[in-house]
Amino acid sequence: MNVLAIGAHPDDIEIGCFATLAKHKLDGDNIFGVIVTKGEIGGDTEIRRKEAQEAADVIDMQLIFGHFPDGDVRENSELITFLDNLVKKHKIDVIYTHSLNDRHQDHRAVCRASLSVSRNVQEVYCFEAVSLISSFTPQVFVDVTETFGYKISALRKFDSQVERTFVEGLEGIARYRAAQTRLPGRLCEAFEAYKILRNENSPKRLELFDLRNQVKTFKKIISGIESDETNNKLLRPLDEEPSDYITPLSSADSFFDENFQKNQPKPQEIFNKENASNEKEVAINELKKIKEEFVHYKKEMEKVRKEIKGYRAALLLKKEIVLYKEALEKARQAEVKSNEN
Fold it and tell me: Is the Cα dihedral 168, 174, 180, 184 positive or negative?
């Protein structure tokens, strides 16, 4: 799937849904992020841009920057066109954006514009922010215990916003959301579900149905080759019609005259049994090869599944190591500053 997260300012996406985006990434989805403003009110734009890019790199999220004024984002045709072009270009399936209940005017404007461009998007979720009021009513909870470290790692890239980000408090919010879903000791990100589309016409489902239909067709062909009743039909040359194999009436009781019967080709001229036998043997050998390939394919797929599982586990362990290293480095820097003072 192609996933798009839309934030008004640098660090909005990280606060609202970064751990969920990390789960998408581990599942093999393509992640795109768009920051509508440069965040000039919150500090130097170049520094904020650099911090946002470093945070996005934690999960290899492709980041797009807008040019709209911080503090004065309007839900107008310019913003809607900007977002709509991104949705179409990247064929977005899922959108994460701000909540309409947010107290920040930029957040509300971005949300309304995001909802406007979600006409052909299958799923739209509104994420939680520290500027939200109590009317935020989530219906979707995502267990992000294993990927919450990615969120913290990304937020720590925003050194210029340490006093504004409230990083430590975000874990408390995540624990509270997990408790709401009866998952004590876990961490969850919560979302308001604006749109969840489940239909049989979505591209992914149609692709799946097409593959299933192909499998059914191959099963019929294979079972047909194995069946004596259908061998002749399946082994006939493709450029000849079935009617060519119908044995003409040649019995003594036939109402056709003798001259007509004499001019008809003999049965052995219509279908050479010896050739049919050879073709049948070739088909059976091919069938054996196909079955062997199927067995090999299943074994390879099982290996791939195990490798992917191991890959995800390795990523989580590597991220945990990175977090430990970052914590140690910060502790070392704090100790150096303490000694200098």
Answer: negative
Q: Count the neighbouring beta carbons within 10 Å of the beta carbon of residue 170.
A: 23
Amino acid (one-letter) located at 84: D
Residue 259 has pLDDT above 90, yes or no: no
| Contacts with 284 (C-beta within 8 Å, 6 or more apart), sequence order | 225, 226
- Across the range 245-262, mean pLDDT stands at 45
Q: How many CB atoms lie within 10 A of CB 316?
A: 16
What is the per-residue pLDDT for 243? 46
Domain ranges, ordered by start, for the chain: 2-198, 204-313
What is the CB neighbour count within 10 angstroms for residue 280? 16
Give Cβ neighbours of residue 4 (< 8 Å, ≥ 6 apart).
32, 33, 34, 86, 87, 90, 92, 94, 95, 96
Residue 134 has pLDDT above 70, yes or no: no
Could you give the angle at the alpha carbon of 260 between the alpha carbons of 256 and 262, nearest 5°?
120
Whether 3 contacts 44, CB under 8 Å: no
Size of the chain in residues:
341
7-15 average pLDDT score: 95
Instruction: Give CA–CA dist 219/215, Å, rounded.
Output: 6
Q: DSSP characters for 123-165?
A: EEEEE--TTB-TT----EEEE-TTTHHHHHHHHTT-GGGHHHH
The H or E element spanning position 62 is: strand 62-68
Rounded to the nearest 5°, which phi and psi values hold at 333? -65, -40
pTM of the model: 0.62
* Alpha helices for 158-272 (secondary structure H): 162-165, 167-180, 203-226, 231-235, 258-263, 267-270
Lowest mean pLDDT among 5-9, 221-225, 300-304: 221-225
Per-residue pLDDT, averaged over 73-77, amounts to 94
Round to the nearest angstrom and report the end-to-end CA distance of the chain: 52
Confidence of residue 208 (pLDDT cuts 50, 70, 90): low
Domain 2-198 CATH class label: alpha beta
